[in-house]
Write a structure and sequence with these properties.
Alpha-Beta Plaits, alpha/beta, 40% helix, single chain, 460 residues, Aminopeptidase
Length: 460
């Protein structure tokens, strides 16, 4: 069977893969600060015979690890950043390792290691079968900030790829052709004039008033945008005490939509609202663009290939202990568990999913910067079951599963799927041709333009 050598190699290297995943999980790091993860991943891939470049695309913690030569060139898109405030032990109750610290509430330790396992396995298949082609593992920083891959793309890291693949831990095994939203992230910094709010209010020019007027204007804007647009915000600085007119204030916005064009249109209108608020309050406004990414654009040809690979590879069954662990977690978020079961037509006693892989078409108002890669090359995006049914995204429950044997089994399953996916493509170049035909139809003559302007550097 095509891919069988790769699968055997992944099993043989499982202890090393488990150790890598646990090292990343046990040492969660913020976006663009994944120094320990970068070191561990680089060392393992160099040991496995890959040519490793650290700082790919000009992003210090990005990795580009290459094996082979010639076409097709397949990219494996790993990530390894964590989330603030989600430190968690492997437990059925909320129990942080360190209160308020980072944790892998999105399972990026599994995500990164699955892609590492896939290329290690596929490398062995290429070597023993003398297969032509190039495989490239990417460690992409700061996915949670939705800017890592755009910055890597701006720096040319993905040039030369023919196709790509991205796995993400989830509750169920599926290849998706649904759409996740594009996004822009920005802060409006207002500068006014301080004064005593009671004795001399006429001398003050409130930066907080400007923030509030911006928020009111944004709420009216919602009535006049397309139904897919989402606008949400938080005030990060609103002054210190009530009796002093705030001379500075800040509000942080996200604008999302199912197309890059809709995001840019809504963003430009929101900037005008902030500028108008500054005029009304006689303050000044500075727009700090934090980043943005494209909507996803999944490739049906490659999604079908992923689903075929899923169904050729049996996922390991769950033990009774794992099922009990998941059931206890589901008790912490019963509504989320029930909603997931209803969405997929699963029985009420399903706590872990181990069914056949499918191609599904559910849209998501969340965002992921894999969309930028998808607008450069045909890309498959898929999930495997790595958590209990009720684990909310970006939650302590997700972090708990990401450090457990439940997450590990889903990770190894994903590595095998991607290794077989790559082996199938290397053995049949017509897959790339068909995927590119679909990609060209989707792009309809458009070209990718990085949403992050050249003047925006790597966040500190």
């Amino acid at each position: 069977m095509i891919g069988s050598i790769a699968i055997q190699e992944i099993e043989a290297k499982r202890p090393a893969l488990d150790a890598l995943s646990q090292a990343i999980w046990s040492h969660p790091e913020a976006g663009f600060h994944e120094y320990e993860a970068c070191k561990n991943v680089s060392e393992l891939l160099r040991k496995e015979g890959f040519q490793v470049e650290v700082g790919a695309g000009g992003v210090p913690t990005a990795i580009k690890a290459t094996f082979g030569s010639g076409h097709p060139v397949i990219g494996f898109m790993g990530e390894f950043d964590a989330l603030p405030g989600l430190s968690q032990k492997v437990s059925t109750v909320k129990d942080p390792v360190e209160e308020g610290a980072y944790g892998h509430g999105c399972g990026h330790n599994l995500l990164c290691t699955a892609h590492v396992g896939a290329v290690i396995g596929l490398k062995e298949e290429m070597r023993r079968q003398n297969l032509p082609g190039t495989i490239i593992f990417y460690a992409c920083p700061a996915e949670e900030l939705l800017i890592g891959k755009p910055l890597m793309a701006r720096g040319g890291a993905f040039e030369g790829l023919d196709v790509a693949v991205n796995f993400h831990p989830n509750k169920i095994s599926e290849a998706t052709v649904g759409v996740s939203t594009a996004v822009n992230s920005m802060k409006f910094h207002f500068k006014g004039r301080s004064s005593h709010a009671a004795n001399a209010p006429e001398n003050g020019r409130s930066a907080l008033d400007a923030v509030e007027l911006t928020d009111i204007g944004a709420n009216y804007l919602r009535e006049h945008v397309s139904s897919d647009v989402r606008i949400h915000y938080t005030i990060t600085d609103g002054g210190v005490v009530p009796n002093v007119v705030p001379d500075k204030a800040c509000v942080w916005y996200y604008v999302r939509a199912f197309s890059r064009e809709a995001v840019e249109n809504a963003y430009e209108r929101l900037v005008k609202i902030a500028q108008g608020a500054a005029m009304m309050t006689e303050t000044e406004v500075e727009v700090e663009f934090l980043g943005g990414c494209y909507n996803t654009m999944n490739n049906h040809v490659l999604a079908e290939l992923v689903a075929e690979c899923m169904n050729r590879i049996p996922q390991e069954p769950w033990t009774e202990e794992e099922i009990s662990f998941a059931a206890a977690l589901d008790e912490q978020s019963p509504d989320s568990a029930a909603a997931t079961r209803a969405k997929y037509g699963l029985s009420p006693d399903t706590h872990l999913y181990c069914g056949p892989g499918k191609v599904t078409n559910f849209n998501s108002y969340g965002s992921t910067d894999i969309g930028d890669v998808m607008h450069l090359v045909p890309t498959a995006y898929f999930f495997t079951g790595c958590t209990n049914m009720g684990a909310p995204a970006h939650s302590w429950q997700f972090a708990s599963c990401a450090g457990s044997s439940i997450g590990e089994k889903g990770m190894i399953y994903a590595a095998k799927i991607m290794a077989m996916y790559g082996a199938r493509i290397l053995n049949d170049p017509s897959i790339v041709a068909r995927a590119k035909e679909e990609f060209d139809r989707q792009m309809a003559g458009k070209t990718y333009k990085c949403p992050v302007p050249d003047h925006v550097g790597i966040p500190k």
